[in-house]
Design goal:
Blueprint (H helix, E strand, L loop, with lengths): L3 H13 L16 E6 L4 H8 L7 E6 L10 H11 L5 E7 L9 H10 L4 H9 L4 H5 L5 H13 L10 E6 L6 E5 L1 H7 L10
Length: 200
């Protein structure tokens, strides 16, 4: 059964009784941070709570595995919009242990597509049109390596301001504990770059 009617019914009550009022804020992040994290259900409330973030504090971009899979894809575009247009001056990439993307088997996922009604001819057409479907759907083996790869893509992106700290972290989805993989401020300092946040 679809959850749509239940959601719309709750929403009517939410608006009618002005339950939105505690969440009113602007579109600009008060803490000037943009976070790329995973779409995992365990992080929906845990991640902001574990970082002491409230509504209005940060921009949060989500993708499967907290990955920047393409330097000119929608995820990278969202980060650039946050930095240039929405006043974010630090970037956090936060992966997590026990991530579903680490267990993705692309061949099995393609089988699931066919089982759910995607015609195998369409799958073959996609494969033969130059898209490496297996590689495109592939997850990652090690979350630390994946986070650091995304950090590297953002730090070295030709359109990213070089003085922007880009941090890499991993969260425990059971406790909310954060482990630092890469300190963006230290990276900039080690490379003789004054951070964009150090002038404020």
């Amino acid at each position: 059964m679809s959850s749509l009617n239940e959601i719309l019914s709750f929403n009517d009550s939410f608006v009618k009784f002005k339950q939105y009022e505690p969440y009113i804020t602007s579109k600009f992040p008060d803490k000037k941070i943009v976070i790329l994290t995973c779409m995992d259900t365990r992080l929906v409330e845990l991640l902001p709570k574990a970082m002491n973030m409230r509504n209005g504090d940060v921009k949060i971009v989500k993708s499967a595995g907290a990955q920047v899979s393409h330097p000119f894809g929608a995820i990278m575009r969202s980060i650039l919009v946050a930095v240039y247009e929405l006043k974010a001056d630090e970037v956090y990439i936060i992966g997590h242990h026990d991530c579903g993307m680490s267990a993705i088997d692309p061949e099995v996922m393609i089988e699931h597509m066919i089982e759910r009604g995607i015609n195998s001819d369409i799958v073959n057409t996609v494969k033969y049109s130059g898209i490496d479907l297996v590689e495109w759907l592939r997850g990652f083996g090690d979350v630390s390596t994946s986070v650091l790869k995304s950090v590297d893509i953002i730090r070295n992106h030709p359109l990213m301001p070089k003085a922007t700290p880009v941090h890499g972290l991993i969260m425990d989805p059971s406790t909310g504990k954060l482990d630092l993989l890469s300190d963006g401020n230290k990276y900039l300092s080690d490379n003789g770059i004054t951070t964009s946040t150090s002038t404020e």
